[in-house]
Amino acid sequence: MSVIARAPVRLSFGGGGTDLPAYADLHGGFVVSGAVARYAVAIANPSSDGSISVNSADYRTWRRWPAGTIPDIDDALPLPSTILGWFAERSLLPAGVDLFTACEIPPGSGLGSSSAMAVAIIHALAGWAELEFSPAEAAELACEIEIERLGRPIGRQDQYASAFGGLNAIAFGRSGAMVEPLAGGPDLDRALAKRLLLLSTGQTRDSASILTEQRFRTASGDLTSRLHQLKTLAREMRGALEAGDFDGFGEMLGVGWRIKRDLTAAISTSAIDRLYERARAAGALGGKICGAGGGGFLLLYAPPERHDEVITTLMAHGVRPLAFAFDLDGARVARVPFGAAVAPAIGA
For residue range 235-278, what is the model confidence (pLDDT) as tens digits? Predict the structure, then answer.
């Protein structure tokens, strides 16, 4: 028997940065985000000899630990090795496991692929151990692994967006997180997706250095007022979406991007700024670089009738569009006979 889990990546619309503990634990964070139907996939297969192994398609790397060994943090594959270690510490993998991982979105994209992978691996191994994790439990464990065990200077919205799916407003505080789906249901999802463009800049980036600087400056009080502004704007974005004011939401994306650029100089580059201005001239009302910034995917809002012009303009400068829809299900798990086809099992 194999256990297959998939978890969607995410688009962060507003409030990014307020989910970092340095801010959220003191002031309360608030973000608006959506899960995207592009997935991280983890497959747990039987081990032939009781060993524990992981094979990463994205990093083209394989690691193995002998039977009875608790995996340590492997520098080449820190995320899966740490999660495997968490389960092995609790004697939840007594017969071993062969873990395979792959993601549709490359690392450094700004779409939260690392956190989506954490959620997928957690669900796959939980299913292998015959446990069931709720979306909140999977998200919290993913946060523990990434933030506490691996010391990554990230926030908590990616894990929750991936675990829950859909379009959500998520509030963060010292005591935990609260996820509230946006009013409007599938009609809102479809209407918003028709107005958004997601385009790869062809540049990857290391979010850790950007977020480390932001965390330090937030803790020192330097950027608190701007994060207050981003949180207020996220609440206004939620109101605009739930009221059907899509153009107003699109313009707010641009406002948030201008505020966020002041958090650290590394968030944008001159090349990204030029792309954004070309998109605006071609008809986009607003937009932002996804994630911590510095590269990855450019998210733009434009009336549907201007999409062709925006895409043609930016493709002339090396940018490539990525078709997408919103994921409404969050992380999913399936058990199938060993060797069975993967796609039908997870609803692809």
Answer: 999 999 999 999 999 999 999 988 888 776 656 788 888 999 99
> What Cα–Cα distance (Å) separates residue 343 from each residue in 163, 212, 334?
19, 38, 10
Q: Where are the domains of the chain?
A: 2-346
Active site residue 158: yes
Q: Say what the alpha-carbon torsion angle 225, 143, 135, 84 is, to the nearest 10 degrees.
A: 170
Residues 238, 32 contacting (CB under 8 angstroms): yes
Give the predicted TM-score (pTM) of the model. 0.91
pLDDT in tens, 302-348: 999 999 999 999 999 999 999 999 999 999 999 887 766 555 555 55
What are residue 162's phi and psi, to 5 degrees? Answer: -70, -45
Give the active site residue among 98, 158, 189, 327.
158
> What's the pLDDT tens digit per position in 30-80?
999 999 999 999 999 999 999 999 999 999 999 999 999 999 999 999 999
Given the candidates 3.40.50.12780, 3.30.470.30, 3.40.50.300, 3.30.230.120, the CATH classification of the domain at 2-346 is: 3.30.230.120
d(CA 324, CA 321): 9
Strand duo 97-103 + 52-56: pairing: parallel
